[in-house]
Amino acid sequence: MRFPTARTHVVIAGGGVAGVELALALHALAGGRVRLTIVAPNADFELRPLRTAEPFAADHVRRHSLAALADEVGAELVADAVERVDPDRRSLLLAGGGTVAYDALVVAVGAQHKVAYSRALTFTGDTSTVSFNGLLADIDEGWTHAVSFVVPPGTTWTLPLYELALMTAREARSMGMDGVRLQIVSPETAPLALFGPEPSAAVAELLATAGIDFRGETYARAGDDGRLVLLPGGEPIDTERIVALPTIAGPWIAGLPADRCGFIPIDDELRVTGVEDVYAAGDGTTFPVKQGGIACQQADAIAEHLAAAAGAPIAPKPFRPVLRGRLLTGTGAQYLEHPIHGGDGAGAPPELRLWSVPRKIDGRYLSPWLAAQEGRRRHDPVRTGDVEVAVEIDARAAGRAAMRLEPYSPLPTR
User: What CATH number does the domain located at 113-246 have?
Assistant: First the structure.
């Protein structure tokens, strides 16, 4: 692909992690060779992964103006949502009735959160933070003695639920409530199995130390009365309160292809299948792992392709995802890293070494931008106990079913 010599008009649909990373990357790589337009209904970029820390007063969601970002990268900001894509006319129809033409389009609109269980506290941040504060108060006052943290089927990024469980355990101990029973119920074979055996074993040790039981290879299904039963087996869940992550559905954008759950299909170069000069990144795509750091890496790969096509002197590198996670435990954070692109052969042996990432999302351009916005250096000092574990796994296995949680497979029968 090669664009004409005139400035290439790149439209970024979405103001989340992937959209911001892409805007920063294109500005750095292509400069004046591209004209940028950002289409987003939200006024601010939010660092949403920090929401798990809010009920415990450990941190808070940071918000940064998209208008200020647009000024910084020389982009036009259109405050609207995408209603439809017209690939033939190379244009977007907006919810407000306007249209935006493009030479190249990157769809980074994210996914939709859905409540999996009506009788559970579904943690998405926002108002659910207040509800979780109520749960902590019930534990403190002795009204709640058993809490189950449940991973719904199809959820491939489970780390936030582990954070909630670990920090709840710490909070209960600090309140002197040592008799509270906590458990994680998950289809995963082992705790945070997506990171591979070494990190999973480390997380299992954290859970054991905190007194949190792990029940793996278990699916939770709501019965006719809304109560949860566990499969296989079909027994009712033994708990007083349930905390669950949301499930997600694709964005269902008219004019673009979608799988049966609304996610946008992409190829190995992150192009939308069968649509010319349209790319997609982030949670709204069919890539099985929905995580901010992966979205940043997708955005970087797209930016390199677009910058090269616009005439920038760079050689685009293929998308080779490395899964990084910062696990908040309430007693310091654990840092995990797992290359999920794999490679030929068995790869390098597992390795344990120090690693430091100051934020919940590590983006090549996003992290230093956030650091500059908040007046901090990109890398905080490495603290004792912060580790990186890298374990190579086969690329095909990772793509087929991350941690054996096939996102769209049916629940097992009894």
Answer: 3.50.50.60
